[in-house]
């Protein structure tokens, strides 16, 4: 059906097998105090009740426009939503989070008052899968562009993807979401946008961000950390005036091939060093290939900060064999270093 008027905001949600939390997420968008939006919900080939839930809500609210198709992955879905959105401003939303009613009003007002900014995020209220508070030990998101640049230099958190609102044209001008940065596509996008526009966050919590074992950041911890490390190195390459070799590639190569990709030695080792520290508190990362990456980092003479505490952490995680391997590696590398 033809949609005659152009809304001020296009809400972009991609969902795959999201039946557990989807209704709450949709209802939080429909309850926004700022109601001039279209709500694009892309079902990326779900096999549960997701499709039916979307169709049921679409029958009740004409602002919802379902996009139903086979599975192609999140990055393809996000770029498709960008292409199909009619509004000049996009509000991202995930199918497992909850937006506060004033979210769109606050962020839209910021973008209207700050035409030099293309991206505005917000603070999160972190919750678990039952909606109860989830403790997070992390610095707040940067509230000004200068703070953003300082946070980028220090590898600190930048912007929460499901709580972001951005101008469509600048995002398209830098190529949208890049396929190579699977599971950290948002970080790569923010760092590329920083060269052409300003980004900031509101201090007010405007989404309830859900943490649970099945979410992407838990299931793909090591891949996400590797991609984030490469994205930050690519950012520094651009900042130094050197070409970014990740532009245009469809997938990141193995870590050992990164020196060749960037055309200089030391990149692979730097990535392992970043990732090793990022995985020390990740139960999923310590149980998957990230553990072997940590061991190699130590054998390469990498920092041992926090490693002995990780031995105890592995025991608490029910991984005594890995705790012994890590302790043995720490002891042997200490001997070599001495």
Automatic annotation (TrEMBL):
Pfam families: Glycos_transf_2. Keywords: Glycosyltransferase, Transferase. The keyword Phosphoprotein does not apply. Transmembrane segments: none annotated. Residues 10-171 form the Glycosyltransferase 2-like domain. Belongs to the glycosyltransferase 2 family. This is Glycosyltransferase. It comes from Novosphingobium ovatum. The lineage of its organism: Bacteria, Pseudomonadati, Pseudomonadota, Alphaproteobacteria, Sphingomonadales.
